[in-house]
Amino acid sequence: MRKPRLCAAVSTALSLLFLLPLLSGCGAERRYSREFYGLFDTVITVTAADASPASFDRRCGALYEELSAYHRLTDAYHTYDGVVNLKTLNDTAAAGPVEVDERLFGLLSFGKEAYRLTEGRVNICMGSVLALWHEKREEGLADPASASLPEEPALKEAARHISPDALVLDETAKTVFYADALLKVDLGAVAKGYAADAAAAFAKENGWSSAVLSLGGNVIAWGAPPGGGLWRVGVENPDPAADQLLETLSLTDRTVVTSGDYQRYYTVNGKNYCHIIDPDSLYPPAYCRAVTVVDKSSARADALSTALFLLPVEAGEELLSRIEGAEALWVLPDGGVRATAGMEPFLGG
Hints:
Blueprint: E1 6-7, E2 16-18, E3 25-26, E4 29-39, E5 42-50, H1 53-74, H2 86-92, E6 98-99, H3 102-117, H4 127-142, H5 152-158, E7 167-170, E8 175-178, H6 191-205, E9 211-215, E10 218-222, E11 231-235, E12 247-251, E13 254-260, E14 265-268, E15 271-274, E16 290-295, H7 298-309, H8 313-320, E17 327-331, E18 337-339
Parallel strand pairs: 1-2
Antiparallel strand pairs: 2-11, 3-4, 4-5, 5-9, 6-8, 7-8, 9-10, 10-13, 11-12, 13-16, 14-15, 16-17, 17-18
Helix pairs in contact: 1-6, 6-7
């Protein structure tokens, strides 16, 4: 059960879907697509305009290597030879400062900034709390009849070790130190968005002036599709009985990120519990079914979609009013839809 993902023809795992033009190309360039598996626990799809299949394959290979580096660096469950990654930090950074790759350092720095940006809703230092929910979710999915919730005393004890101040970053030395021995970092709310931005920048530098990249529930599009116009991204209806998309967005040079409760969850006594945890209550919230954010930064949109899911809609609108350039669409518990005024130009593609 993963965070909703986007793919190039059908949406099989989350709430966003590419609706690409039927024209295959104009001039010398044509449209090509490919899917990658095994990175970020999701399916990665790239669709781009290129001069030939060989050129597209070469650039895809380079893009895959770029994304693979971020996957290894942000992996909290596995180690890799010669790589100091998130698991390394969670295992050793309380013993003393650990030097890290500048890409991981940049992501951790953004994670701390996301705490300020979202006014405390997104906290990458909540790993100790999220680990308790992850363990129970995995157990519940493996054996639904025995599914249970984390013990509340354990959640409260874990919550004593989630202060962002305990994550000490030395900009000059590029080192990371955990000032709390029980601190654990979880980058799930920001890693894919940050990697999507980096991958898009890499792809542009390597010759793709027109492309769409999807990392699960994170889509980033730039340029115009072959044949002209805008890229179209569909927003999936979180109601499993729905037989059509909730909305279609038309855009370019933007990113679209969705967070929702209907993909990564488990069930206890007939009630679903999703993977997004409120830092105050230490339980999943129920303010909405999903939030889709349109922004120019996928990293920021990733953080904001999580933050807005964790807030009442009115409070989320107030938060967005202080953040220039980001717009949002909410799917409410009763199935209704609410959007910021600035979302209107993207709707109805």
